[in-house]
């Protein structure tokens, strides 16, 4: 009797301690929402990778469980905001630009970089999702233990959506999709062949730029801003809708990449090709 109640008290004390330690780490800002550019990248990666939308609530609260979806989401968001690259690996600069406190703390940076090197070395080489995640995890641990995210970044307005932003998204999506060099050379000439990789790339660019959505289809007003010079919006919209609707019955509803390729690329081929050719030297 006596020994079981001692045990109960001990268990309660342990639970209380656990509780205290979680609340105190939370007060360092680990559970603060990530800065806006990271939140936006997370949102487009969740859509693009087809991860259940309600996971985004966790990510928006800086909670990143260890599972395959989350790891690949971190890789994708890392490529977008610049803390991960499959070829170059973990890039602390990409995090410095998001977290001013980290940028000002070179000791924390070193600690994160050396932690990332060690952890990434233990991942099997082809598993880029696990590597990106492990690097990011080192950052999260350091954040929990010290520097906070108290001072928000001075509010940056998102970059204006224009040709340069379109090209930037193409380069980012080519990395996410692991597009081989031969295909990238074709893209630089404004040619986007109807193959699996390219269909995925077009959908990625569409989701990332907001020009396309799996449910709503092409965003015609935004496309008009980008491509509509010299036409009335009504004409532009009418032509766009004719093409989008004409292609609708041909499509396998399940294949999201094929939908995006037809409705976004096929219906705006000339404009997309011209834009890309005019800016090909900007494609890294
Ligand atoms: C998460 O953040 C993104 C970007 O700020 C926002 O668009 C989205 O609605 C948020 N989602 C949830 C579930 O909190």
Question: Can you offer a commentary on this structure?
Answer:
With 284 residues, the protein is mainly alpha-helical. It has 15 helices and four strands. It folds into two domains: 36-145, Recoverin, domain 1 (Orthogonal Bundle); 163-282, Pheromone/general odorant binding protein domain (Recoverin, domain 1, Orthogonal Bundle), CATH 1.10.238.20. Helices cover 65% and strands 3% of the residues. The strands form two sheets. Strands 1-2 form a two-stranded antiparallel sheet. A two-stranded antiparallel ribbon has the order 3-4. Helix 11 (196-209) packs across helix 14 (256-265). The longest helix has 29 residues, at 2-30. It is elongated and about 55 Å long. The model is unreliable at 1-29 and 148-153 (pLDDT under 50). 2-acetamido-2-deoxy-beta-D-glucopyranose binds at residues 39-40, 43, 56-57, 60.
Features:
odorant binding; elongated; disordered N terminus; 284 residues; 15 helices; mainly alpha; two-stranded antiparallel ribbon; Recoverin, domain 1; 2 domains; binds 2-acetamido-2-deoxy-beta-D-glucopyranose
Brief description of this entry?
With 284 residues, this protein is an all-alpha fold.
CATH domain topology of the largest domain = Recoverin, domain 1
CA radius of gyration: 23 Å
Q: How would a textbook summarize the main sheet? A: 2 strands, antiparallel
User: What is the residue-mean pLDDT, rounded to a whole number?
Assistant: 84
Given as residue ranges, the uncertain stretches (5+ residues, pLDDT < 50) are 1-29, 148-153
DSSP strand count: 4
What is the CATH superfamily of the largest domain?
Answer: Pheromone/general odorant binding protein domain
Instruction: Work out the helicity level.
Output: 55-70%
Tally of separate domains: 2
> Can you tell me the CATH architecture of the largest domain?
Orthogonal Bundle
Strand content: under 5%
Principal-axis shape: elongated
Question: Which small-molecule species are bound to the chains here?
Answer: 2-acetamido-2-deoxy-beta-D-glucopyranose
Q: In DSSP terms, counting alpha (H) and pi (I) runs of 4 or more, how many helices?
A: 15
The secondary structure category is mainly alpha
Just give the CATH class of the largest domain: Mainly Alpha
Task: State the end-to-end CA separation.
Answer: 72 Å
Spatial order of the strands forming the largest sheet = 1-2
What is the string of helix and strand elements? HHHHEEHHHHHHHEEHHHH
